Automatic annotation (TrEMBL):
CARD domain span: 1-82, 108-187
Organism in which the protein naturally occurs: Notothenia coriiceps (black rockcod)
GO biological process, one term: innate immune response
Gene: nod2
Organism lineage string: Eukaryota, Metazoa, Chordata, Craniata, Vertebrata
InterPro entries linked to this entry: CARD (IPR001315), DEATH-like_dom_sf (IPR011029), LRR_dom_sf (IPR032675), NACHT_NTPase (IPR007111), NLR (IPR051261), NLRP_HD2 (IPR041267), NOD1/2_WH (IPR041075), P-loop_NTPase (IPR027417)
Pfam families per the UniProt record, alphabetical: CARD, NACHT, NLRC4_HD2, WHD_NOD2
Full protein name: Nucleotide-binding oligomerization domain-containing protein 2 isoform X2
Length: 796
């Protein structure tokens, strides 16, 4: 009973200490603490804190209440009192030996309303200087009316009292209002940019360098690169937001991410790491997204926490043969400082948190990621891929933020260990397609017609989720609007359309001999096809004049627009690359289909990706098919190349499409029909064999359970190849041997395009299945695409 008695005995002193200043602040602070500790209920609080009643009366009410609550509450009251008034004379428990301590409540409570209560003392402190901002957010979010604001901001209240009134009001408005306030406070607390935080004024030479770097980046990124060969389209005019999502579930993040969230802390899973991976399919917009980030940084419109940004393209790093030091890599590949190189480099080393590196297309690097060769010394020379891998791991320049883009297959577990997070780029949303087409056509009438025609062809609309296909479709709008409804179905159709479009627009040749367009340009197709085919075999995407010559590529072929001049800043050598990697795969496929120079094992090897992976070899199908003198140089040491399997799969998909019955009339005069027939048979056999392999992996069901198949991404790829062929008999045959009750296709990277293919093939199943598609990006458009196979799905 000792502390309780003390409340009685020291009543006068306590009241004096709490009220003598005439301000209610001390009393209210004590109340805040007791509320947050759960010693006072909300009702208790309202009974004590009656507005309009004299301060002394309120204080007496508090003392009465804590007394009646007993020893523990009295102990905590003294602890709260001491925290608010540590120097108050004649009040206290220290001599009594009673030592109640205030518990620090966990910051993360189960609800926001609870957090408002348990964190009340600190929230009052944080809110008192920014009541206006918090009220503004509450009004904007529809939780507060202007009358609520007036009540909170009564001029008789001190800022702390206003903060308390605000919290009390929010409490009555419920959980979502509480969330708005907490978010507002969190936002206010977010660390200020490191630049401001340190009050750092970078040396003059660094600022001069930054100016040069940003103007060079701005110049490089203001036009969309794939239009180089066709027309100049400014990035500002055409850039359309893609869909960004975290690869893993994160409780704090709901809804899509913004561009700056890629680099920001949101969704971080490994705080030790500094590398963010942006993964997405070929043509999904990864390079364009980085280009956008670069441009915004260079203009001072985003990422301003970073003083210097160094953009790298793995494609270009491939052609760097020399061993370089980190300094040489930065300055020679990005921007050369006109003077004081050493001082600038030292500044970079000393301020890693002010530096951002971007590496576009890790999947295009000749070497797969490895952490075997450690390098910690920034002045030591090494091959560029070793520098890159050590930067990613953080053994070199720890603390520098890195953004790496890659296709999903190429980012293995070893690499992922060094990531702070992974962000998925999932192409355009339905409204993104709409927006892109409208931006692409300044004539609103044309845009409306293109969109209308897409709406009538849902398969094509599905394809347009991929930005590169959306671009082609939009670019070829005349062909699109001119061709019959529904005639464009597959990815191959779309690429054939752009092939025809380019030939017809760029060619000055008059078709006097009545040749079909392909026949007329067959030589160009074969020259570019060989270049593409050899390049994929050698993981080569930038071609020198000699490469072009070897494949017979002429000036006229270049003029057709499929190649664009490569901006190789490192070597300053003139180079060419295909408009897009998928275009290179398409030309490689054309070569496989049309050339009489390829080996008969080319097609079987093309479809054998899994086996080769299992054997741990590099996929050498392209090279193996060439005469040995023609074989391009492989990366030394026979390393496996991360890029090969996906490129091979894209090429195989195109080969299937090109050999479809629907396109055979095109080849009529370009290739002997017996050869064509043989190639078709080879593809059909490969597809059927590939499917069999998947079916064989189905385990026998446990008695009483359903027979279930868990498909791998390779299965979806085969389905896509079958879809490209558009031959019912092939689909029917493939499905005739699949006998399962349940088909699990989780984590298979299935989007609308894959849904179209799935529906086409699965509708040929003999017996109904349950289809499980969790953890993909099916979306509304995808579900619509699945309609044709709904009759065979007993559950979805
Ligand atoms: P990836 O690097 O994933 O292979 P790209 O960024 O090269 O894909 O995109 C291929 C093409 O698609 C671009 O050249 C451009 O025409 C179009 N594209 C991609 N993303 C966008 C975007 N966000 N806005 C407008 N067009 C885009």
């Amino acid at each position: 009973m000792f502390v309780q008695k003390l409340v009685l005995r020291q009543r006068t002193e306590i009241l004096n200490a709490l009220c003598s200043s005439g301000s209610a602040e001390h009393l209210e602070q004590v109340l805040d603490i007791l509320l947050s500790q759960g010693e006072l209920t909300w009702e208790d609080y309202q009974n004590i804190q009656v507005s309009g009643r004299a301060l002394h009366c309120n204080a007496r009410k508090l003392l009465d209440l804590v007394y009646t609550k007993g020893e523990d509450t009295c102990g905590l009251f003294f602890a709260a009192f001491k925290r608010v008034l540590p120097d108050a004379k004649g009040v206290g428990t220290s001599s009594s030996g009673c030592s109640s301590t205030l518990e620090e409540k966990e910051e993360h409570q189960s609800t926001c309303t609870e957090t408002l209560l348990t964190q009340r003392p600190s929230l009052v402190e944080k809110l008192r200087g920014c009541i206006d901002g918090a009220l503004e957010d509450l009004v904007t979010s529809g939780h507060f009316t202007s009358a609520d604001c007036c009540e909170v901001q009564l001029p008789i209240h001190t800022p702390c009292q206003q903060a308390r009134r605000l919290l009390d009001h929010v409490r009555s408005k419920g959980e979502s209002a509480a969330k708005v306030v907490l978010q507002f406070i969190q936002h206010k607390q977010e660390p200020v940019s490191p630049l401001n935080q340190e009050k750092l004024t970078p040396p003059k030479e660094v600022l001069t360098y930054q100016k040069k770097l940003s103007s060079s980046i701005s110049a490089q990124s203001c036009f969309l690169s794939t239009y180089g060969g066709t027309s100049h389209m400014s990035l500002d005019d055409i850039y359309t937001d893609g869909q960004l999502e975290l690869a893993h579930n994160c409780v704090d993040v709901h809804g899509p991410l913004g561009l700056e969230d890629i680099v920001g802390a949101v969704g971080t899973v490994n705080k030790e790491a500094d590398t963010v991976l942006v993964s997405g399919e070929a043509g999904g917009g990864k390079s364009t997204l980085l280009q956008r980030l670069h441009l915004l940084w260079a203009r001072g419109a985003a990422l301003q926490d970073f003083l210097l940004l160094f953009p790298f393209s793995c494609r270009r790093l491939n052609s760097e043969q020399r061993e370089l030091s980190l300094q040489e890599l930065l300055f020679q590949h990005c921007c050369w400082p006109d003077r004081q190189q050493e001082e600038i480099f030292q500044f970079i080393l000393d301020h890693p948190h002010l530096i951002l590196f971007t590496f576009d297309g890790l999947d295009e690097l000749k070497q797969s990621f490895s952490d075997e060769h450690r390098l910690c010394c920034p002045t030591q020379r090494a091959p560029v891929h070793i520098l890159l891998f050590n930067l990613i791991q953080g053994s070199l320049m720890k603390g520098v933020r890195k953004v790496v883009t890659s296709r999903p297959e190429a980012a293995g577990p070893l690499f992922k260990r060094h990531l702070c997070k992974e962000v998925l780029l999932k192409g355009f949303s339905p409204s993104g397609i709409d927006c892109f087409v409208r931006k692409h056509h300044s004539d609103a009438h044309v845009a409306a017609k293109v969109l209308e025609s897409l709406r009538t062809n849902t398969a094509l609309l599905g394809l347009c989720h991929s930005p590169v296909l959306c671009w082609i479709v939009s670019q070829c709008h005349k062909e699109l609007l001119g061709c019959g409804e529904g005639s464009l179905q597959t990815i191959t159709d779309v690429y054939l359309m752009i092939l025809q479009n380019f030939f017809q627009h760029k060619s000055s040749l008059k078709n006097t001999a009545g040749l079909c367009w392909l026949e007329q340009h067959l030589q160009t197709v074969l020259h570019l096809g060989k270049l593409a085919f050899d390049g994929i075999g050698a993981t080569c995407y930038i071609f020198s004049g000699t490469d072009l010559e070897t494949c017979g590529v002429t000036e006229k072929d270049i003029c057709m627009g499929f190649l664009m001049q490569s901006k190789d800043i490192s070597t300053h050598a003139e180079g060419y690359e295909f408009l897009h990697l998928t275009m290179q795969c398409f030309f490689a496929a054309l070569y496989i289909v049309l050339s009489d120079n390829t080996d008969r094992s080319t097609i079987p090897k093309l479809f054998e990706t899994r086996k080769m992976k299992e054997a741990g070899q590099s996929s050498r199908c392209f090279i193996a098919c060439l005469p040995s003198t023609d074989q391009p140089q492989r990366p030394s040491g026979g390393e496996t190349t991360a890029a090969e399997t996906p490129n091979q799969q894209i090429t195989a998909t195109f080969v299937s499409g090109l050999l479809s019955q629907r396109h055979r009339s095109l080849w009529l005069h370009c290739c002997p029909s017996a050869v064509m027939e043989k190639r078709v048979r080879q593809v059909v056999k490969c597809l059927s064999k590939g499917m069999q392999k998947h079916f064989k992996s189905i385990p026998q069901p446990v008695e009483g359970e359903k027979k279930s198949m868990h498909a791998m991404p390779g299965f979806v790829w085969l389905i896509k190849c079958i879809y490209e062929m558009q031959e019912d008999r092939v689909a029917k045959e493939a499905m005739s041997k699949l006998e399962v009750d349940h088909l699990k296709l989780t984590y298979c990277n299935i989007g609308p395009v894959e849904c179209t293919a799935l529906a086409y093939v699965l509708q040929h199943l003999r017996n109904p299945v349950g289809l499980q598609l969790d953890n993909n990006s099916v979306g509304d458009v995808g579900v619509e695409q699945l309609l044709p196979c709904m009759h065979i799905c007993n559950s979805l």
